[in-house]
Design a protein that fits this description.
Strand order of the largest sheet: 2-3-6
CATH architecture of the largest domain: Sandwich
CATH class of the largest domain: Mainly Beta
Number of helices: 2
Shape: rod-shaped
Largest sheet: 3 strands, antiparallel
Structural class: mainly beta
């Protein structure tokens, strides 16, 4: 007869296995679809702007004299168009007296590089104290240019693979 020993069988709790499969799928999903890769690409933008024509006031002065039976003051402004475009310049003259301000406005078309003298007239009194001033309103031109910008966008590996196909 055989002797059998009574042994208690020890049931051990089931081993907890780490779900590497699920973690692997999740990691693969994140690597493929999470936007983590910076991609830079150039973009061009067409810009148009209005800018005033360049000019130089070479000289400005006032003189007085008779015009018919009236005593007048002349305002002289010498302008040079320094731009590559012709245009109509507006010269506003101000004759400032103790009685108030007299104004005159003259428009003149000037070609590039050309010098023109503009003469304004103010009906003043003989011997009257006055001060002469002016301002110039140049015409405008449209300048067009292309500006290149570099944009950076974050994309996923999946998006890069799709664009490569």
């Amino acid at each position: 007869m055989r002797k059998t020993s009574k042994t208690k069988s020890k049931l051990s709790p089931p081993e907890k296995k780490f779900p590497f499969g699920i973690l692997g799928v999740l990691l693969l999903f994140l690597i493929l679809f999470l936007p983590i890769i910076p991609v830079s690409y150039p973009t061009e933008e067409y810009i148009t702007t209005e800018v005033p024509l360049k000019y130089t006031v070479l000289n400005a002065w006032a003189s007085s004299g008779l015009k018919g039976l009236n005593w007048v003051t002349y305002g002289h402004v010498q302008l040079r168009n320094d731009d590559d475009q012709p245009g109509t310049f507006v010269v506003n003259c101000y004759f400032i007296t103790l009685d108030g301000t007299l104004t005159d406005s003259v428009r003149v078309y000037i070609f590039p590089g050309e010098v023109k003298e503009v003469t304004c007239v103010g009906d003043t009194k003989f011997g009257q104290d006055l001060r002469f001033s002016y301002d110039v309103q140049p015409p405008t031109k449209t300048i067009s240019r292309t500006v290149t910008h570099t944009l950076t966008k974050t994309v996923s590996l999946f998006q890069l693979l799709i664009k490569a196909i």
